[in-house]
């Protein structure tokens, strides 16, 4: 809902220009509103890349997107996301992760940053053309297993 309100207020062209030129996210493009199934059926989709998500989370964590207080609020909102069936599926809930999931039929994505005691670990896992529907957990389990492997690799001091 919030994304669609911003799309109405600012327009797709302005948002796409801001993403490409100000945020330097060359692979991120909005071509439809969220949950607009008619547009999806017509072939319109929204795009990003692991690289763009990495750049976005780096900019956020380094305070380059917002003033300090708003950065703190944004990270807190991302850390309190209710969907824990991907990145957080197989790792302890005590780990602080600021992330955003995305799912549609055949698609499961999660991207964000793990705040480990000695480092930040940026991770993005993007799957598509997977089996079944959104309710089918195979892709979400895959995302969770990759997140667990990354967490287990970096949770100890390097």
Key terms:
alpha+beta, 158 residues, single chain
What does this structure look like?
The protein has 158 residues and is an alpha+beta fold. It is 42% helix and 18% strand. It is built from six helices and three strands, in the order H-H-H-H-H-E-E-E-H. It has helices spanning 2-10, 12-22, 37-41, 50-61, 68-79, 138-154; strands spanning 96-104, 107-116, 119-127. The chain has a three-stranded antiparallel β-sheet, with helices on both faces.
Q: Secondary-structure map with pairings?
A:
Layout: H1 2-10, H2 12-22, H3 37-41, H4 50-61, H5 68-79, E1 96-104, E2 107-116, E3 119-127, H6 138-154
| Cα-atom radius of gyration | 16 Å
Oligomer: single chain
Q: Helix coverage percent of residues?
A: 40-55%
Number of strands: 3
Coarse shape: globular
Written as H for each helix and E for each strand, in order along the chain, the element string is HHHHHEEEH
Order of strands, widest sheet: 1-2-3
Approximately what portion of the residues adopt beta-strand conformation?
A: 15-25%
Tell me about the largest β-sheet. 3 strands, antiparallel
Low-confidence stretches: none
Q: Roughly what is the average pLDDT, rounded to an integer?
A: 92
> In DSSP terms, counting alpha (H) and pi (I) runs of 4 or more, how many helices?
6
> Class by helix and strand content?
alpha+beta
N-to-C terminal Cα separation, in Å? Answer: 41 Å
């Amino acid at each position: 809902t919030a994304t669609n309100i911003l799309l109405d207020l600012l327009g797709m062209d302005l948002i796409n220009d801001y993403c490409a030129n100000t945020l330097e996210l060359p692979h991120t493009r909005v071509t439809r509103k969220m949950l607009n199934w008619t547009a999806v059926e017509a072939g319109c989709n929204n795009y990003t890349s692991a690289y763009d998500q990495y750049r976005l989370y780096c900019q956020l964590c380094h305070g380059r997107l917002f003033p300090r207080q708003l950065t703190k609020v944004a990270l807190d909102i991302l850390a309190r996301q209710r969907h824990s069936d991907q990145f957080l599926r197989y790792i302890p809930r005590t780990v602080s992760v600021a992330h955003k999931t995305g799912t549609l039929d055949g698609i499961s994505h999660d991207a964000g940053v793990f705040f480990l005691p000695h480092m930040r670990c940026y991770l993005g896992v993007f799957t598509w053309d997977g089996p079944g529907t959104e309710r089918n957990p195979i892709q979400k389990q895959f995302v969770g297993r990759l997140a667990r492997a990354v967490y287990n690799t970096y949770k100890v001091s390097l």
